[in-house]
């Protein structure tokens, strides 16, 4: 089975042509995993989806509604493992950017096969490349996982995936922001740092939970404005998201330079 889709509580193979998520990217989403029949951090993912929807002024269905969708879809899926994608759009409406009054959101739950990454990725690290694409600034959308992901599409399209696991994105002013599909953590002068994401980028749940869990620890994860020079001065680098967990980086490839990092596992407090 490739992908199973559940739209507004029923199995579906299509979406309405006037859905604003399809037409304008007017919506939000989250990606999480089911492993051995368990869905880690389900409630936390719903909370993130709710907060992102609030930024766009989209009404969020009750958690029990999403839970019912999940159970019905999983019964049809029949596998212990899956990638779960939750998408919430503003709903359907006439042509034009302004949303109509009384519009009802559409919710989409999709299940697809869970990728399994080689153990060598975690033991030996992965190679990444600095992307030539630069992210524009939109502080009002910074941090949220909205449906307009064309920057990521273009960056991923240009990435030689047979050589590099991930691409590293800078913004229009040269600040380090994130990976194409992950958040970044570096160790610089003994401190763990992650880009602050005040101007653009997506604040993933793995990153957020690490910041919160480590707040009172001996080595907290701090948000900071990171230049490329700071990353090149770091001795360790990791990628993180809900599917890969935390994965060490071995090499960062620039146009005329290769930065090597020490490979080490990073365990959340």
From TrEMBL:
One of its GO terms (molecular function) is pyridoxal phosphate binding. It is an enzyme of class 4 (lyase). GO terms for cellular component: cytosol. It catalyses: 4-amino-4-deoxychorismate = 4-aminobenzoate + pyruvate + H(+). It holds the Pfam family Aminotran_4. GO terms for biological process: 4-aminobenzoate biosynthetic process; folic acid biosynthetic process. InterPro entries: Aminodeoxychorismate_lyase_IV, Aminotrans_IV, Aminotransferase-like, BCAT-like_C, BCAT-like_N, Class-IV_PLP-Dep_Aminotrnsfr. Keywords: Folate biosynthesis, Lyase, Pyridoxal phosphate. The keyword Zinc-finger does not apply. Its EC number is 4.1.3.38. The keyword Lyase applies. Its cofactor is pyridoxal 5'-phosphate. Pathway: Cofactor biosynthesis; tetrahydrofolate biosynthesis; 4-aminobenzoate from chorismate: step 2/2. Homodimer. Belongs to the class-IV pyridoxal-phosphate-dependent aminotransferase family. NCBIfam families: pabC_Proteo. This is aminodeoxychorismate lyase. It comes from Leeia aquatica.
